[in-house]
Amino acid sequence: MTEAFDKAFELLMEYEGGYSNDPADRGGETRFGISKRCLAPDVRVATRDLRWRPVSELNVGDELVGFRAGERRATIFDVTSVLAIGPVRLPAAKLYTSIGELICSLDHIWWATRRGGSEVVYNWKMTSQLRIGDEIRIWREPWEESIDAESGYLAGLLDGEASINKGTITFFQNDGPVLDQFISILKARSIHFGRSAAIISHIAK
User: Fold this and answer.
1) Strands 134-136 and 52-54
2) CA distance 85 to 101
3) What's 127's domain CATH number?
4) What mean pLDDT comes out for the span 142-152?
5) Percent of the chain's residues with pLDDT above 90
6) In angstroms, rounded to a whole number, what is the distance separating the alpha carbons of residues 21 and 8?
7) Is the same domain home to 123 and 154?
8) For strand 92-97 and strand 100-105, is the pairing parallel, antiparallel, or unpaired?
């Protein structure tokens, strides 16, 4: 590993006392994550600003969308930072998944489960422990970034007038040309949506 990584690793271990999310570590949940386990340079990861970028384009200090195990094996999303970057040579494998292929080290860990019983239980499993049929927990299938005028129009409306709850985006707008244009763009991009009339009451003082 690089000298920068080793220095960051040493400092963090003084605070943490061990790897976080390590299947062999029974010391309990830790606040920060650090790992020498690796992904191939072309594998894309989600950044905090919701862009999917190849590992090769990341820089020290970039913030990524991460997650950790919560109570009852729930998934808790969190922000994680890139502490150091450097090439390594490790035994690796290619994973063939329902949303694509990727190459990773054999000791890279995944939040995964194997269906078969009445209860679905997720655990941290290394790549070398995965078997055909195991299900890996993912956030979303990677999307492409759009920077055209219509994407900016949607972004402006949603940033100002929308809310999100449990994965559902709700947008409030009176009937008129703005809403008509909004719906037209959604249809053109095959984005599924539902529409309902809402009555908003206001109590005057």
Assistant:
1) unpaired
2) 23
3) 2.170.16
4) 84
5) 8
6) 18
7) no
8) antiparallel
